[in-house]
Amino acid sequence: MKRHQVIIVGGGTAGITVAARLRIAAPHLDIAIIESSDKHYYQPLWTLVGGGVFRPEESGRDEAGLIPAGVQWIQDAVETFDPHQNQVTTRSGESIGYDYLVVAPGIQIFWDQIKGLKESVGKHGVCSNYSIATVGSTWQFIRELKEGTAIFTQPPGAVKCGGAPQKICYLAEDHFRRSGVRDNINVLFTLAGPRLFAVDKYREVLEQVAARKGVDTRFRHNLVEIRPQTKEAVYQHLDTNEEIVLRYDLIHVTPPMGAPDFVSRSELAGEGGWVDVDKHTLQHTRFANIFGLGDAASLPTSKTGAAIRKQAPVAVENLLAAIDQRPLTGSYDGYTSCPVVTGYDSLVLAEFDYNGEPAETFPFNQAQERFSMLMLKKFGLPALYWHGMLRGRA
Q1: Which position among 114, 161, 206, 348 bears the catalytic label?
Q2: CB-based contact 375:363 (threshold 8 Å)
Q3: Predicted TM-score (pTM) of this structure
Q4: Containing domain of residue 182, as a range?
Q5: Structure-derived torsion over alpha carbons of residues 230, 233, 234, 238, reported in degrees to the nearest 10
Q6: Does 198 reside within a domain?
Q7: How do the pLDDT tens digits run along the chain, 394 residues long?
Q8: Residues 177 and 101 both lie in one domain
Q9: Whole-angstrom Cα distance, residue 241 to residue 339?
Q10: From CA 371, how far away is CA 48, in angstroms rounded?
């Protein structure tokens, strides 16, 4: 049986960043990444792709070019974990042993949990920014809409960047206004939650943004079905259990998301199916030689690339401490960031920690819409991602 000192499950943001940092800190380690995809996407760019600012292909790079030198890439996918025997089994049927395991496979999108979505997304006005295969249709349908109703949805539970569903809503509204068709279009933002944003400082400004733009916000609305033939969106009201049917001409759907199946059905899973880790050390709560981070982890914070940038150094520090049988001193405070695009020339840069307290980077009030922060998202953060994070430098 093949064996490696460290196996990293997932070659996305978290997996590559951890691998790069490990290579810098401990170049002697035998490290392998298990990842089936041959393309790697900077998914935060998909909001701007959906808004017509970038082309879909500009968000991707070849996975092979991002695997750190000296790290073995196993182009396969994990099917099962056996933490008692310190091994994983892959889709191809291979068993691979490890001394230490880092679990970072990202989040799974449940397209089939909304009836009619899977077969209609990308067609007939139904779009979604949450797949490279469908993100191009978002801009196509926004651009083509001249009148009618445009709906933007947010499901219950965790999704990639909790503010992302409203970003594309604000971009679309801005496009309609700049194109001279805004008066002909009713813009709705429907969400399962009771408020626009979890942190009050940013929620207040986003409520003002929605009001200024004339966005009709509908809270506690959970999308359960798409009827593409009649262009109807069917909702369940989460307080009254009432069925609500809204007609649309364009609907951007944020699908339900959760832990990958092979994680949620494993012994590594805790509540909700997420990898059950200590929220500060990122060490598994039951298996001391396993660490978890990123979107699949049980960490009670928003699932963003910015959160991973702060988690990865902690995971690496504590993994190396565990290897050396030293106390785990690295601690993650729940920092995350959500750059909420509010138009083609403005953005609110929300940064906060586990306590919901702002943890801002810049010496000004980040709860204000700023053009400079939009430029940061368009140009600064992608450069930081490709050349900093994924190289283990930032």
Answers
A1: 161
A2: no
A3: 0.96
A4: 110-257
A5: -170
A6: yes
A7: 899 999 999 999 999 999 999 999 999 999 999 999 999 999 999 999 999 999 999 999 999 999 999 999 999 999 999 999 999 999 999 999 999 999 999 999 999 999 999 999 999 999 999 999 999 999 999 999 999 999 999 999 999 999 999 999 999 999 999 999 999 999 999 999 999 999 999 999 999 999 999 999 999 999 999 999 999 999 999 999 999 999 999 999 999 999 999 999 999 999 999 999 999 999 999 999 999 999 999 999 999 999 999 999 999 999 999 999 999 999 999 999 999 999 999 999 999 999 999 999 999 999 999 999 999 999 999 999 999 999 999 9
A8: no
A9: 33
A10: 15
Residue finishing a domain among 224, 257, 290: 257
| Secondary structure element (H or E) that encloses residue 187, with its range | strand 185-191
95 and 13 within one domain = yes
What token pair was written down for 205? 């400004």
On whether the CB atoms of residues 101 and 315 are closer than 8 A, the answer is no
Q: What's the CA gap between 287 and 79, in Å, rounded?
A: 19
Among residues 257, 273, 295, the one where a domain terminates is 257
Q: Scan for tokens 């073995």, then name that residue.
A: 72
| Residues 6+ away with beta carbon under 8 Å from 325 | none
CA distance 12 to 105: 7
Identity at 118, one-letter amino acid code: K
Angle at the Cα of 306 from the Cα atoms of 279 and 270, rounded to 5 degrees = 30
β-sheet bridge partners, residue 3:
97
Q: Which residues contact 195 (CB under 8 A, 6 or more apart)?
A: 203, 219
Q: What is the CATH number of the domain that holds 100?
A: 3.50.50.60
Angle between helices 135-144 and 164-178 (to 10 degrees): 30
- Would residue 338 show up in a list of annotated catalytic residues for this protein? yes
Residue 117 token pair: 């979505």
Domain co-membership, 191 together with 208: yes
- How many CB atoms lie under 10 A from the CB of residue 211? 10
Q: Which of 277, 338, 374, 381 is catalytic?
A: 338
